[in-house]
């Protein structure tokens, strides 16, 4: 941040470092292991009195000198040059913190040069003891150089106590110092063996060449157990949090770890092959291949080590951007552009926001990403995100996927960066996926009721205020078409009674909605997603769009489960509130006892495209388009190492709840995977830029200017919002995640979530989705008016039977029978017809308020009543008549 940025948009600074560093480190390890090879081989030549071996080692030393001193020296200078340009902040820190370490290393390096030059140019003149001493000194100096550099490199991954003490020795002898030193020492010996083959295959004497091939192969074979054991030691000496980020979370690690493992096996096999008798021409070919395999081997290791540090250049001290975590809070307040020494822009305006975004991109993205480049190209990584999706990515960056540093800067800077990526790099406009729509007002049907003559009252309701449908079955299924309706039939009289014997309740949807299979692909893919071929226009339980209720003795109500309602009419109209006609018949005579109408709310307006790009599938108004669904699957695959997109593209889409337990669909999921609600909310709570009710309507069809507007009940009219009952997005997620604390992902998703309505995460009560929900009586204590600023968050019902939609009053009448469905409590204001949700209150009492309110007991009792039998507090007038539509 205090240095100019080298704008390498195509190749990327990291790739340049890798290109030079892998070559240099390969040769540098040869310089160490090769010194041991020369010393031990020369000793063997003296011991065996073998002139041919003396001659071999002399020629090998010349090749070794040219490769390590000349090429190695040049690439060593190249590394310093390139890292100083690409990451000057990190380079400066390493120089200043380890200045004496570097000085000592240069002394050892000088000793290397001197010893190798003396050994080579005085080869014939030196006596046996002198030559052995000089070759040993070379190896010792080379290994001591490794000793020093290893300490600094290991420090970058595991600084250990240095983070607290800033003590040189704590940084140098860090947690991975000895394990990495052992591992690199064995690598050095193997690389020495690899390069020894280069000179060995040029020996003209076939017998001697065969002997040397076997001798050299031992350097590959015999050192392999030590390499493996030290690798295990090295791996487990890395702290758990770094290992988890590097090897479990970061998807880039797998490729390079696999390269390292595969090339290790190939090197071992190569050693065995070289120990066998093979033709000379094959020896040369295999040697060339093995040198390249060794380069890949070193590259796989070095890339894995570099990736393991992410998101840091120096673990927990400095991000790859050159920004220190300790400075983040101040920079988030003051801003990056005002603080960055070389930034040309200090204040962001509407005119310069794209240029400001470019400055921010260079400061915070360019250290790892390219633009249309060869590695970590930002273009494909952001092409499937909208402007809001980019804001969400920047908001959540580094929270869960900790291999990326967090965005640091003000909200204004975050928006400028998102604008730059979207408008300048992606060449896409910023568009609002939700604009206000003028909705059609539909004709309501109110069945007849004669207070003087009718003997029955039929109360019916949908068990949910809105049933959402994923409508992306070609790619995946979250929720299928599956509305459930319930009803109770009351025989009127001085003492009304619930009746069920010899009663048949039928239901039928309005015309135009009887052929849902014509509009959605649920039936086409049901065999894949639900394990069986479901007949067209039938639901999961076999119910169709007309049929007969079954009586549920446990709930004391009639029930028709999983009716496959969709919001698309045959006339091409989106209507999320189609009407059902419910009839109560005498089973014996067929006499019509009562009739009522009720909406079956269903919407495909799931807001995934707000972040994940695409358009609405149905007339650009609702439903999930292929582009959005594909983008979601690809992100899931990348993060979770799944193959959902490939499976769906092959015609085998999956039900999300096959892996994620879900009480809503009664699926068990996989033991170690979060339930669907905890996973969905927990993940997105870490990313969404809002924590209030705006976060809810981004996904749920509750936007007050949208095409569904599902939050339409009394509470909405009183200006209560989602967070008044469910808590903020983060609190809502915490309650779900705490109900899954035994699952591996729970802790990671909770780590960065905070609370608003309670003091801390510890105070959030765990719950199970669909079973433990906010309790009405938390605010309506003793059924009274709630106190000012009441909040229902964090007090859940204990049992499923205590849910509002299941609970009964003192007379066994279900709560929604009189008050309406959740989120559509009477008086509801339906956007498609002001009384569309209030049909039964209008039918029975001529008012849109809860049935029986305002002393209309005669609806069921046929006469005025003196006492409140159903629940306390019924005697007074309805408190909020101003909410009537």
Which helices and strands appear, and what pairs or packs with what?
Layout: H1 13-48, H2 51-86, H3 88-97, H4 99-121, H5 128-157, H6 162-165, H7 168-172, H8 177-200, H9 206-221, H10 224-237, H11 240-249, H12 253-274, H13 280-309, E1 312-314, E2 318-319, H14 328-334, H15 336-339, H16 353-364, H17 378-382, H18 387-396, H19 411-425, E3 456-462, E4 467-468, E5 476-477, E6 483-491, E7 497-499, E8 503-509, H20 526-529, E9 546-548, E10 550-552, E11 557-563, E12 579-586, E13 592-599, E14 602-603, H21 609-612, E15 616-618, E16 622-624, H22 626-640, H23 644-649, E17 654-655, H24 676-685, H25 693-699, H26 714-717, H27 722-726, H28 729-738, H29 744-750, H30 776-779, H31 815-819, H32 839-845, H33 858-861
Parallel strand pairs: 4-14, 5-17
Antiparallel strand pairs: 1-2, 3-6, 6-7, 6-11, 8-9, 8-12, 10-11, 12-13, 15-16
Helix pairs in contact: 1-2, 1-5, 1-8, 1-13, 2-3, 2-4, 4-5, 5-8, 8-9, 8-10, 8-13, 9-12, 11-13, 12-13, 16-19, 18-19, 24-28, 24-29, 28-29
